[in-house]
Specification:
The radius of gyration is 15 Å and the shape is globular. The longest helix has 29 residues, at about 130-160. α2 (about 20-35) packs antiparallel against α5 (about 100-120), α4 packs parallel to α7 (about 130-160) and α5 (about 100-120) crosses α7. The protein is built from seven helices and no strands. The protein has about 160 residues and is mainly alpha-helical.
Length: about 160
């Protein structure tokens, strides 16, 4: 029961249409709340969320025919938080509140959704694992690609200024 609640992020994964997008959007205020404790805590929570997401996904799909049902969105939260890592560290370095980097939040959301849906290269490889680890890993990799994209866009924006 607890695994399913975690896997669906308290039922967010049951929203339609596009439960993955709902999971990514829900990750934003949840991430902001954790970020208030600082970048180190946010990073550690991200690292801890990976194994929790894997466990919850494995338990929630145990005995079912679908290894990646759409209502499981804890993997989207993990991937979205990884995409947000450059923002929490950038804000801390600049001495500004993380919400001041709002263009980066938009970029992180859009890039993560793009890579999660498109599944280029290593994202697709992880997705093809067809197990609970693959469910979580493809979103973690998509989040890492989105984080790189966020850093590139931030660099380009600051260079242009």
């Amino acid at each position: 029961m607890i695994a399913r609640a975690i896997a669906t992020v308290g039922g967010v994964g049951l929203l339609r249409p596009a439960p993955g997008t709902w999971g990514s959007v829900a990750a934003l205020p949840l991430g902001w709340a954790v970020m208030q404790a600082g970048p180190v805590v946010f990073t550690l929570v991200c690292l801890g969320l990976g194994p929790v997401a894997w466990w919850a996904t494995r338990e929630a799909t145990r005995g079912g025919g679908d290894h990646d049902p759409s209502e499981i969105v804890i993997d989207e939260v993990l991937g979205q938080w990884i995409a947000l890592l450059p923002l929490v560290w950038g804000a801390a370095r600049a001495g500004v509140p993380v919400h001041a980097l709002w263009p980066g939040w938009i970029a992180a959301l859009l890039l993560f959704r793009l890579f999660d849906i498109w599944k280029p290269g290593p994202v697709g490889w992880a997705d093809r694992r067809s197990d609970a680890l693959g469910v979580v890993l493809d979103d973690a990799v998509a989040g890492a690609l989105a984080a790189i994209g966020v850093m590139i866009l931030a660099g380009a924006a600051h260079w242009a200024m």
